[in-house]
Write a structure and sequence with these properties.
Number of strands: 20
Order of helices and strands: EEHEHEHEHEHEEEHEEEEEEEEHEEE
CATH superfamily of the largest domain: Vaccinia Virus protein VP39
CATH topology of the largest domain: Rossmann fold
Helix content: 10-25%
CATH architecture of the largest domain: 3-Layer(aba) Sandwich
Shape: elongated
CATH class of the largest domain: Alpha Beta
Length: 330
């Protein structure tokens, strides 16, 4: 055991713990891992020696797939000693896809995103295989209240040449939402605020869909920040470039939060072609136009966030804008 360059501290037998540098067991309290994973498929991205893969197995996971860019000697030894059924796949976070791996109820991504030159691409790959949720953990900018990300060209701190990006906690939360999770909640911070955990949450409509920039849209109204009184008209066009003729199945509108958090306002299916769209894009889009009329007379006076979710058979995309409800004096 001493010949292995351990990173995780794994209990191989009562009292026999691997001499890893990472206090793996101590981290568990911050990560938000469900106590009971019975019946769940779990994906552990960047598994290294496999502590969290084996932890998911202990908590009853039906199947655990562990991936990393190489299979560490520690993982092989621990898997053998623990008589574990965790399955290892050699692949990067960028290579994660449902065709090869299938879908998972829970995805772990601990200590990975900040090592990627393109973290949003990696997070999008995770979102594409997550049916219910993903736990994202890593370096954050302590005490930074703005939604910002710092680029690291050389060393992070004094000795880490493998870190490229470090977000603030709110930026990490926004990145998780932007990658394909309708909502993202902050789970915890620890190590003096230098590490953070965010849980990305899927919804019934998005569990088998990938968030995609193939869905392109434009709003004719309202303008962001527009003032409204009693009625709000949302109109514009939307297409899925992967199948513009088939078009979008559904648009849903939520108030002051995405699906699962905000208040459901309404839904509609696009009908008819938006004027000039064919000449602009060069292909037919017969079901691209939408108009949604909303009664806002009972909304509280002040600023509100409007969340639009667009769904095609294979993709979905979310958009947020703000309007200001103004009271009309009689």
């Amino acid at each position: 055991m001493e010949q292995v360059p351990w990173w995780h501290r794994i209990e191989l037998a009562p009292g026999l713990i691997t001499p890893g540098l990472d206090d793996s067991r101590g981290k568990v309290q911050y990560l938000g891992i469900p106590e009971n994973l019975s019946g769940k498929r779990v994906l552990d991205v960047g598994c290294w020696d496999g502590f969290f893969s084996f932890e998911a197995e202990k908590r009853g996971a039906r199947e655990v797939i562990a991936i990393d860019i190489w299979e560490s000697p520690g993982f092989r030894l621990a898997r053998k000693v623990l008589n574990s059924k965790v399955h290892f796949e050699r692949m990067s976070m960028y290579e994660v896809n449902s065709e090869r791996l299938g879908l998972f109820e829970v995805v772990f991504c601990f200590g990975v995103y900040y090592h990627l030159k393109n973290p949003l691409t990696g997070l999008e790959r995770i979102a594409s295989v997550a049916k219910e949720s993903a736990l994202i953990e890593g370096e954050i900018l302590a005490e930074e209240t703005r939604t910002v990300v710092e680029f690291i060209e050389f060393l992070y701190g004094d000795d880490d040449p493998t870190t490229w990006w470090v977000p603030s906690l709110s930026a990490l939360q926004a990145m998780v939402r932007a990658s394909g999770f309708p909502s993202a909640e902050i789970v915890s911070t620890y190590q003096g605020g230098h590490r953070g955990v965010v849980r990305g949450l899927k919804t019934p409509l998005t569990k088998a869909l990938a968030a995609s920039e193939n869905i392109v849209f434009a709003l004719a109204s309202p303008r962001n920040g527009e003032t409204v009184c009693d009625r709000l008209t949302i109109e514009g066009w939307v297409i899925d470039r992967s199948d513009p003729v088939r078009g979008i199945d559904l648009i849903e509108v939520y108030l002051d939060g995405p699906e699962g958090e905000g208040e459901f306002v309404g839904r509609i299916s696009p009908e008819g072609e938006f004027p000039g769209l064919t000449s602009q894009w060069g292909f037919l889009a017969p079901n691209s136009r939408f108009t949604i009329e909303i009664d806002v007379s009972q909304w509280a006076v002040g600023q509100h966030a409007i969340f639009l979710s667009f769904y095609s058979p294979t993709h979905w995309r979310q958009h947020r804008l703000h309007v200001i409800r103004k009271h009309i004096h009689s």
